Amino acid sequence: MKENIIVKASELFSRLGFKSVTMDDLAEAMSISKKTLYQHFKNKHAIVQECGQFIFDNVCEEIHAIKATAAHPIDELYLVKAAVMKHFQNETTSPVYQLQKYYPEVYQMLKDQEYDRLGEMVQSSLEIGIQTGLFRPNINVDFVARLYMNGLRGIRDVEIFPPSTYKIESLFEAFLEYHARAIVTPKGLDILNQYTAKT
Questions:
Q1: 3-state secondary structure the chain
Q2: Nearest of 185, 73, 195, 193 to residue 129 by alpha carbon
Q3: Domain of 109: which CATH number?
Q4: What is the mean pLDDT of the chain?
Q5: Are 168 and 90 in contact (CB under 8 A)?
Q6: Contact, 33 vs 22, CB < 8 A?
Q7: Residue 187 lies in a domain
Q8: Which domain holds residue 167?
């Protein structure tokens, strides 16, 4: 039952936001009593924490699957962006917005895992980009990977980029182009221009 609650709550939180969904909403959606919910979770915060981790784990798995099938590292950047965008919205109902604003300790817990879980993948992509002639051979892979991960965190910071003013998709597009243009070779730039021309 606990696993079913996490799956259903994660679906609701992803669609409506972590603050927007109440315990009553969840109980009704699952056709169970609130008492049953509290048998498995001491409070809503505990559900948010487990669901946040569940969603994050799924996103990581999705990104690793993309890495295995992407045609090249530039393709990977844009495929990952498309996948991640499914978890973002621009309104204050955005799950990420609500997590950062109303459950900052859960947001920080997930943020602390990002580089450990995804940093190696970013470094690997940079190295493949160098080997295939898409990225400049003289880039510092560790530095660029950390800068990229930090930039992704930065554009999701609602204090720096409030959702009422900045659309997250536009921020992702601008950041990806900014990141890629700093490291591509002329060969890589030709491919990058094909992607940016579509947006």
A1: CHHHHHHHHHHHHHHHCCCCCCHHHHHHHHCCCHHHHHHHCCCHHHHHHHHHHHHHHHHHHHHHHHHHHCCCHHHHHHHHHHHHHCCCCCCCCCHHHHHHHHCHHHHHHHHHHHHHHHHHHHHHHHHHHHHCCCECCCCCHHHHHHHHHHHHHHHCCCCCCCCCCCCHHHHHHHHHHHHHHHHECHHHHHHHHHHHHCC
A2: 73
A3: 1.10.357
A4: 91
A5: yes
A6: no
A7: yes
A8: 54-197
Range 25-40 average pLDDT: 95
Would you say residue 90 has pLDDT above 60?
no
User: Does 121 have pLDDT greater than 60?
Assistant: yes
pTM, full prediction: 0.82
Task: Give the whole-angstrom CA distance, residue 148 versus residue 123.
Answer: 10
Examine residue 43 and state whether it is found in any structural domain, yes or no.
no
Tally of domains in the chain:
1
